[in-house]
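Posting for a labmate who doesn't have an account.
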Amino acid sequence: MRICIITEYFPKSENFEIKGGAEASAFNEAYQLSKNHQVTVLTSLEEGFPSEYEIKGIKVICCGKERYYVQGGSFLNRISFMKDAIKVGKILDINLVIGYNFITHLVAWKISRKLNIPAVARYHDVWIGEWFKNMGLSGLAGEILERYNLSRNFDLIISVSDYTRKNLEKYFPANKIKVVPNIVDFPAVKSEKFNETTISCVARLVEYKKVDDLIRAVSILKKEFPDLKCKIVGTGPMEMKLKSLSKELDLDGSIEFLGFVEKHEDVLKIVNSSHIFCLPSIVEGFGIVIVEAMGCGVPFVASRIPPVMEASNQKGGLFFEPENWQNLAETIRTILKDPELYKNLQKEGLEQSKKYQGENIGNELEKLFLNLIN
C-alpha cells in the first residue's frame, strides 16, 4: 500500500519529540505500517524543522507557514497548514489517506475526493458539545469543524476505544466504525528510583488536565509525607497559574515543573524513577501515558473516567472521583501505605501493558486498510 498519514505534528528525529497523544499515535502507526508499506506523512512546518526529511523509512513533508506547537487557537496558521497539505496531498501517488485529529480529518477527506481513494479518520475522542467547556470561546471553531467532519462520507473511522466508538455512533454510521487501540510500545528504560517518594505527571498544562487537583492533593499529603516530591512534565497556558498555586500552597520545594522534555526516553525515565504516576485529567480519548506508566512498572492514580478505565482494564492502579482532590490524596495515600497492594499493582500493570505492543496493532490496522483498498 501507498499510505498518506496527515498529522498536525510529527517528530523530527528518532528522539521522538512528541507533545500529545494524537502525534504519538500517528508516529507509532506510521512506523509499524512502514515496515511493509510505503508511508508518507504530511505535517506542520515547525520552527527548526526542514521542509522535507525522513525518519525510520517514513517520508515526511512539512506544510504551511513555519509555526510553533499549539493545542488551540492559531487559526490562520492552522488554515495555512490545511490548505497547503491539501494541495500537496492531491499530487501524491497514494491509495489510502488517514487523518489523525479534527484539523487533519477534513484534509484527508478533501484529498481522498480528489484522488478517488479511501479516506480514514483515526479518532481519539469526541468533543461535540464539549468544545466550549474544554477550550473556552476558541472551541467554537472546533465544534463547527468536528460536526462538519462527521457529516463527511469517510470510508472508515477507527476509534481508539469502545468509549469513543459509542460517542461516535451518535453522529456516524456504526457499521463504518472499528475499534483499534493506540500502540504503546517502547524499549525498556533504565533509571534509579528517586531518593524521595515521588509522584510524576505528564500532561499538557490546560484546564481539563486538572493538574491543579494534583497540586492540591500534594498539599494535603505533605502533612503525612513531608519528603514527598511531585514532578510535572509538560507546558501549556495554565503553567503560570499552576506555579502560582504551588507557591500559594507553600509547595515550591515539593513540586518541580520540568516543562517540555524533548526526548521521549527521558520522559519515560522520569516516570520509571517515580513511585506513583498520576493522571488527574477529566478529558481523555485513551490514556497513553497510563499504559506507559504500567509498562514502566509504576502504579498509577487516575480520574475515574471511562477511557482510562478501559485502557487499563482497571488494572495497574487506582481511580479517584474526578475533580475531587481530597479523594485523589486519599487514593495516593492508600498506595503509599500498602506495600503489598503496590507490588500487586506493579505486576498486573506490566501484564496489561503488553496488550498494546506495536506489531499486534499494526497487523490489525493493515487488515482494515487492505480491505478498504481491495
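Reply:
Got it, the C-alpha cells are right above this. Residues 2-183+357-373 form a domain with the Rossmann fold fold (CATH 3.40.50.2000).
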